[in-house]
Amino acid sequence: MSGTRTEDGRVTHPGTGFRAAPAAEASPVMRVRLVRREVDADAIGWGADLHPVLQRVYAARGIRCAQEIDHRLATLLPPASLGGLDAACALLADAIERDSRVVVVGDFDADGATGTAVAVRGLRMLGARNMSFRVPNRAVHGYGLTPALVDTIDDADIVLTVDNGVTSVAGVERARERGMRVIVTDHHLPGERLPDADAIVNPNLPGDCFPSKALAGVGVVFYLLLALRAQLHPTGSSDARPDLGALLDLVAIGTVADLVRLDRNNRVLVEAGLRRIRAGKACAGVRALLEASGRDARTTVASDLAYALGPRINAAGRLEDMAIGIECLLADDDATAQERARRLSAINEERRELQAAMVEEADARVAQWLHAHGGAGLPHGVVLFDEHWHPGVVGLVASKLKERLHRPVVACAPAGDAGGEVRGSARSIRGLHVRDVLADVDAAHPGLIDRFGGHAMAAGLSLGRDAIGRFAEAFDEAVRARARPEWFDAVVHTDGELPADAFTLDLAHALRVAGPWGQDFPEPLFDNWFEVESWRLVGGRHWRLALRAQGVKAPIEAMLFHAIDMAEPPQAFRAAFQLDVNEWNGRERLQLILRHLVPE
Predict the structure, then answer these.
(1) CB within 8 A of 11, min separation 6: which ones?
(2) d(CA 416, CA 390)
(3) Which SS3 state, helix, strand or coil, does residue 375 take?
(4) Which positions ≥6 away from 278 have C-beta within 8 Å?
(5) Can you tell me the distance from the alpha carbon of 329 to that of 286, in angstroms, rounded to the nearest whole number?
(6) CA proximity to 440, closest of 478, 483, 407
(7) In whole angstroms, what is the distance from residue 357 CA to residue 369 CA?
(8) Which of 237, 187, 241 is nearest to 212 (CA)?
């Protein structure tokens, strides 16, 4: 199948994707094309010892020299330029000397949980003895350091927030009224007014000079600990200083799970954490979570953190109490860690079942809307609400629908109280800053949204139940005003064709560990033309195929997961795929993971 070359030289392959395509995904609102990433020829050739395919992959991600893939900890950005550290370190150093009571207030997601564990473990390593933590209950306290949460804290001289607090104006005020000092560590974008905290550490504050704005919440508090250690131990050998590197397994999990951009600095943090995990040096909780998810610590990669560990930790905050996840990560004995990990796995299984039901209902709503409007298409910005949905899972529903419809989605559910509050979770498409969209709605319709905050790709909000209809119209209008038409095309970016001699197990191994891969540093994805030699259904909804590729003598094993919308594969197709290592019964074989198909 020949592609179409665009004016800028890119080759595109238009078609309709059919991987995991329920009614909503198969609808005409989703236009799909494969687009090969552009490669600067001048960026290739610097790594003579690198496989040519790997050189091309790196070049497509803007890597131009070996220094940019040097992920040694020695290359980590120094803390000095991160604002607020001096004031925060002074408060914490004084608290350690006075044996003051420090309460860490985290968030109810994996970034907040790992960040809380890093803060507690790290401060104990640096001499703090009077440590505890709190984490808000999503349904009871709301997000962040709210007055309701502050009123539950009776034992704090200092409150240290992790992954929250930069918008907690009222909560910080309540804590200060009660005689507590407050240190805010966060990475979220601030609102119009900053809280009156004693110190704020956030690389995304206006005017902050820290070069990387992509730190997750766990990364911010890790940097605070680095600065505090330098103040408490300014001289002496490194052997005499607490080894904060022991916390990097947790930093890696939180960074990957929060989907922050994996710029070079974050890749350094994640790769250091992965090295600890592979070397068997992870904390008991991480080891237990790997075991519970069936992952081998020796071969752990970033995708294991994203798709196995992160969801298990997140599930506690979505359905029950994130304290369970934090206790798992703080456990020092294997028995306690394993019991908590098993419980997290059970909660995660419940979350998966609930999510599947909610997504099915959302798909039906979309199909009904399209039918009622004669296939005229969906709004530019989609808002969904259901009386029976769980507020802890709406973010996952919004994410799934965003992927299928390729337009920003806000999924809403009752907040769980009797006051009629609705909580929404927004997910956006590349190019459209969803928090700015919500700010536009708030500016055009004052009072329509009670609270909101978040990032470019994800945000949260609260509003009244009677405001949902007006909000849906306002959100669609704001999206239309900001978005460009091409942003609604679903584009799958690939690294081009894989040469016939590159379908090897050695290259699959090299690509697996060449990252860490993640947000804005995506795992390599290639696109080739294949013919189907044979196939069979596996597990009732997956295809295992034997494929023929031009120039490759032997058939190539391949898997297509969740192939639920077609009775059988076409005889030939172009596929976007990843090279994978299939490990079974002690044997390794090359396998392709098909991510997107474009039939003839």
Answers:
(1) 3, 4, 5, 35, 36, 496
(2) 8
(3) coil
(4) 297, 298, 299, 300
(5) 7
(6) 478
(7) 19
(8) 187
Residues of the chain with pLDDT under 70: 1-32, 236-239, 375-376, 417-419, 564-565, 600
Predicted confidence at residue 87, as pLDDT, reads 98
Find, among 317, 343, 451, 341, the residue nearest to 396 by Cα: 317
Instruction: Enter the tokens of residue 221.
Output: 């508090």
pLDDT of residue 5: 32
- How far is Cα 583 from Cα 586, in angstroms, rounded to an integer? 7
291: its two tokens: 């075991």
Residue-wise pLDDT tens digits, 33-73: 889 998 877 777 777 788 999 999 999 999 988 899 999 99
Could you give phi then psi for residue 500, rounded to 5 degrees?
-60, -35
Paired with 258 in beta bridges are none
Predicted local confidence at residue 32, as pLDDT? 64
The Cα 326–Cα 463 span in angstroms is 30
- Pairing relation of β-strands 556-560 and 572-584? unpaired
Burial 425-456 (b: 16+ CB within 10 A, else e): bbbbbeebbbbebbbbbbeebeebbebbbbbb
The Cα-based distances of 366 to 20, 22, 403, 469 in angstroms read 16, 11, 13, 16
Beta bridge partner(s), residue 459: 426, 454
User: Burial level of 486, CB count in 10 A (0-12/13-18/19+)?
Assistant: exposed
pLDDT for residue 236: 62
Could you tell me if 159 and 183 are in contact, meaning their C-beta atoms sit under 8 angstroms apart? Answer: yes
Burial of residue 369 (number of CB atoms within 10 Å: 0-12, 13-18, 19+) = middle
pTM, two decimals, is 0.89
User: Which two three-digit tokens encode residue 270?
Assistant: 């994640």
Tokens coding 90: 């002074």
- 248-257 and 217-232 are packed helices; what angle lies between their axes, rounded to 10 degrees? 150
